[in-house]
Design a protein that fits this description.
Blueprint: H1 9-12, E1 25-30, H2 33-48, E2 53-57, E3 70-72, E4 79-80, H3 83-86, H4 105-112, E5 116-119, H5 123-126, E6 128-130, H6 144-154
Parallel strand pairs: 1-2, 1-5
Antiparallel strand pairs: 3-4, 3-6
């Protein structure tokens, strides 16, 4: 995860935080509960620097970047990846993007038009998984089928 520091008075005027055209930099945050916290911190900064930064926190509790099937971390029993979290790649009605019960990072990106996206890769993405499209066994990083699946989700 890359973190940008707020501008100093010397850099604010020269615009490293400004997008082309001189508008504030638009940052969208996606991911799980850790990303929620990143997003809240960036939103607080944006309130202090509205002329430089606009933040849309589209992170959701428990929503990693790898969708579908079941997940487990360490020796726990595991559980399903919920439908809400599995829907991040599906387009939705743009008027619903701000609804916390809707997760569509695809539509959020189209609506918000961020200059940058902050995405945290979490334990949900690196633990053991059962992914229907690659079989019914528990798989993990380092196995070719799961590695290919994870890479496809990051694209």
């Amino acid at each position: 995860v890359a973190v940008a520091l707020p501008p100093t008075s010397a850099t604010a005027a020269s615009g490293p935080w400004l997008s082309p055209g001189g508008r504030p930099t638009r940052v969208m945050v996606a991911g799980d509960s850790v990303s929620v916290q990143f997003g809240e911190a960036l939103q607080a900064l944006a309130l202090e620097e509205p002329e430089h930064l606009v933040v849309f926190n589209e992170a959701h509790l428990g929503c990693g970047t790898t969708r579908y099937g079941a997940r487990r971390i360490a020796d726990d029993e595991g559980g399903p990846v919920g439908d809400v979290c599995s829907g991040w790649g599906e387009p939705v009605d743009p008027s619903t993007v701000a609804d916390r019960e809707v997760v569509s990072w695809v539509t959020a990106t189209e609506v918000f038009l961020p200059d940058a996206v902050v995405l945290h890769i979490s334990p949900w993405d690196v633990g053991d998984r059962r992914v229907p499209s690659i079989g019914g066994d528990w798989v993990h990083l380092g196995q070719p089928a799961f590695d290919a699946y994870v890479l496809s989700e990051y694209r």
